[in-house]
Amino acid sequence: MKNKESSRNSSANSDLSLRYKLRRKEVIKIGYLSFDASLKIHYSGKYTSTTGHGGIAGYIRHIDRGTDKMNGCEVQHSNPDIDSDLTLQNESYYKDSNGEWQKTSHSKDMADAINRRIEYAKEHGARISTKGKNDTVIVRLLVVQIDKETISEHKNWTFDIIEILEKEFGADNITGFSVHKDETNPQNPHLHISFIPCHESQKNGEIKCTISQTNFFKNPKQLAALHRKIRKSLLDKGYEIELENKPIEEHLAGYYDKNGEWYQQGLNADQLKELSDRKINLRLEEIKISIRRDELDRLETAVGDMMKSSKAEKEELEKERISVENDRATVQAQLQAVAIKEMEVQKRETEVAEISVYDDFICRVRLNAFQWSIRDSNPWPQQCECCALPTAPMPPKDKLIIT
């Protein structure tokens, strides 16, 4: 039985997908759809999940600023993206006591529509608390945005979306909405919708009401499914749109549960724009850092090459200095050796000169003695070793003749 049902569901999904593909050329392309349901108004007056105060009146003062300006009651808003020159282009609608949509003539019209629904719930047994964690969320604020091209092709886009939300949350629970066209960021018009989380049931023919957001947003998985359901409903109305969120939403809009399963949630237009701008700025910073890193790498390489070159030159100069010092020491040693040699030569020359003078003196002495010997008729003397003359005994000093 389950297999047959699964097969029927698969076949139905295939038919739906085929129908969308066949219709692709006939419908208008849109860039994206964003849906956000994170803002809340508590019965105590606190609104949003963490900060802010002013309750319903404060919130209406923000979203229905066009009606206020039309009535000469313009309020200065803290949002820097609001262009007050365009505020009168905004449109606001509320649901009257007959359940019909009416254009607001005073900002209290939207507040009255919210309060009527809350009072109806209280009259039918809804319990509302203002204490601590039990501070009841009486309004869940929805924000929807699509792109300008789709808006230009689908003039009734606001009520197409309202109709989808009325079917999802109950027609009586959607009490009012404003179309903002005066914000420069995002530039596309977007919807602010008031949703009262009132759940009705009947028991024994009696209507019972509870105001509880958990009856409509049980968990993030259900919220993600709602996001997809809105996209499918727009496809049925002739809008072409991707069934899945954009990659930036897949990455940032959601969470992992304890089992590691990813639950995807939609982002509002402001968050999408902010995240897109942040992504672009981060990418630009990454490029700048990359360029700076490349410059530093090149500078570091150049400095390293210079240091290597300087070190090599320093080592070469040191080698030349050592070589010059060695050459100088060698020259000094050689000069010292030459000086010693010169001294030795001079000494030898002096000694030779002295010896020569002495030898001349001896020769003359011996010659005179030889002459003396001949005169005295001595026997022929022995030959002299130095001058090959005959030798003779030396005469007495008193007879020695020196010439």
Structure, described:
This protein has 403 residues and is of the alpha+beta class. The protein has 2 domains: 23-267, BirA Bifunctional Protein, domain 2, CATH 3.30.930; 355-399, no CATH class. Helix content is 50%, strand content 16%. The chain has helices at residues 2-22, 55-63, 65-70, 108-123, 148-153, 157-169, 220-236, 247-252, 269-375, and strands spanning 28-29, 33-42, 91-95, 101-103, 137-146, 174-180, 190-195, 198-203, 206-211, 239-240, 254-256, 262-264. A 6-stranded antiparallel beta sheet has the order 2-5-7-6-3-4, with helices on both faces. A two-stranded parallel sheet has the order 1-10. It is rod-shaped, with a radius of gyration of 59 Å. Mean pLDDT is 75; it is low at 1-31, 247-256 and 399-403.
Q: Which key features would you list for this structure?
A:
alpha+beta, BirA Bifunctional Protein, domain 2, 2 domains, six-stranded antiparallel beta sheet, two-stranded parallel sheet, 9 helices, 50% helix, disordered C terminus
Topology at a glance:
Elements: H1 2-22, E1 28-29, E2 33-42, H2 55-63, H3 65-70, E3 91-95, E4 101-103, H4 108-123, E5 137-146, H5 148-153, H6 157-169, E6 174-180, E7 190-195, E8 198-203, E9 206-211, H7 220-236, E10 239-240, H8 247-252, E11 254-256, E12 262-264, H9 269-375
Parallel strand pairs: 1-10
Antiparallel strand pairs: 2-5, 3-4, 3-6, 5-7, 6-7, 8-9, 11-12
Describe, in short, the structure shown.
The chain is α+β, with helices and mostly antiparallel strands.
